Fold NADH-quinone oxidoreductase.
Amino acid sequence: MPKLKVDGIEVEVPAGATVLQACEAAGKEIPRFCYHERLSIAGNCRMCLVEVKPGPPKPQASCALPAADNQEVFTTTPMVKHAREGIMEFLLINHPLDCPICDQGGECDLQDQSVAYGRGQSRFGENKRAVTEKYMGPIVKTIMTRCIQCTRCIRFAEEVAGVEEIGAIYRGENMQITSYLEEAVTSELSGNVVDLCPVGALTSKPYAYEARPWELRRTLTIDVMDAVGTNIRLDSRGRQVLRCVPRINEDVNEEWASDKTRHAVDGLVRRRLDQPFVRVNGKLKPASWDEAFAAIAAVDHGGSVAAVAGDLVDCETMYAAKVLLRGLGSSLLEGRQTGMDYDTSSLAAVNFNTTIAGTEEADAILLVGTNLRWEAPLVNTRIRKAIKRGAKVFAVGPETDLTYNAEWLGADLALLGDLPEAVVKAFANAKKPMVIVGGGALKGGHAASLKLVETLGLIKDGWNGFNVLHMAASRMGGLMLGYAAKGGIADLAEAKLAFFLGADEVDFSRFLGFKVFIGHHGDKGAAAADVVLPGASYAEKSGTWVNLEGRVQRGERAVFPPGDAREDWSILRALSDAMRATLPFDSFAGLREAMYAEVPALREQGLVTFDWNPPALDGTASGVLEGYPIKDFYLTNAICRASPTMQRCSAELVHGETFAEAAE
């Protein structure tokens, strides 16, 4: 480990660290535009210049210079100050003076660093060049005259997203960054380039001109668009969420977020349920809360009551519904609304045991019935990192573009019992083998997948390579709370009274009893219900969610529900009085304490450890996988379907529709 001095401070850094990292370890701030911790080193901008001894008597780019023993680094000498002023002067030669109207204003690296490290005036009086705008799709807005060619967006697209559709054309002063053929970038992670861009060249198209950063109230919460549990910050003004950006969590999402996570928020104010409805003569009519509760209480259910949890529901709502059903004499609970009925007697057997971060360490990976690129984009990026470390990837299922090379074995689940010799050999030589079972194979191939634990040697000291990939934010929390009927959702179909907690993906034609929908959007569930009770979305309530690896996380309320809508638990509490099965808590804190007492694992935030005790199942599987559960990445839930941005992404990026720009 090299030891060096930075402005007289001695620091020791890991082998392979750069001088820039050594400076940061010493507490020195080094300006930079092109350098990013998660991307390869480009050395383009030269803003990170420092003076190094021994070495040539000139400033050197600290981001590309390896740290070495006995180096002396100086970050504040007159030479360094003069060099940085010159670099900033060059970067601003062609930059337009449009800070007052730039969407990046207030959170712009170029603005901040030009004040801190630049000259007070420029010596260049020549005309500034202009660059035509580029089209990058419905997510990214471009004003390329501002671009300083840091190439962060190019490196992100190639290295993290795996979609090599952004690059540089021309040379010298004529260099431009563009999407190839100037078409929409097809990555489901494209919105991250907006965060990466240190100037206002790439900004958020849906958020353009909506607000300034100092106008917004920031709320830390958890994303529910998939089961990864991305840590996010919701920026709101008044009663509307205007923006969603990721927070850094190395164990979950690093600092990335999918486009669905970022931009589905404009669906939070559209197609909302803001008052109760009761079906009268076949049509839903507006009603008061008392009328809606009376209609439900009048149902003669005889204890035949069911609850189906949707994909976005928090643990508190599911627990309140469970206690209500218990008071009504029922235990018919289900969260797998699309009809899956795999064995849930062991939660370890349906958990992502390797953990999301642990995926990077795998050296042999078998994907079974999963399109990771759509089902969990931020797990897919981890597999790309594992491949860079030498991992070999095999896949069972219909061929699709995962953004990396995988050896496709076929789509027949029978392969799980007779894997090719090349796969067996690769796993025999692997120190950290890994299998990921997706929703496409879980229903019919769970047992056969569990047999792979023995045949492929997936469990070693300190390593469990068996993983089930869920796609719903509520799934693991629901399983911990018992939302898994023995025969799946078919066991609930005969219930005389059924509660649907934001469940919009159910086959409602199978439910012949009285249907109550508690949710936030007028989608499929509300259309099929006999009574509709307006609830709160994930942005409008505090809650607990458990991600696919069993990590307990909590989110906070950013805004209030619209109109007469209420938080789901409070609806269930008021309804319990009307049904004479009063819930034993009167506050959200009381609800949580009762939930913790029943499921202690939900009390502490962090990774829950499930004991490995897989059920003894018949380990055979057959049948050809025709496709994957997610048919359209951008329209997987009611919030997305209400979002104009997600509708545009679906039309353009999934269905190939073309949209003319204004100039055309």
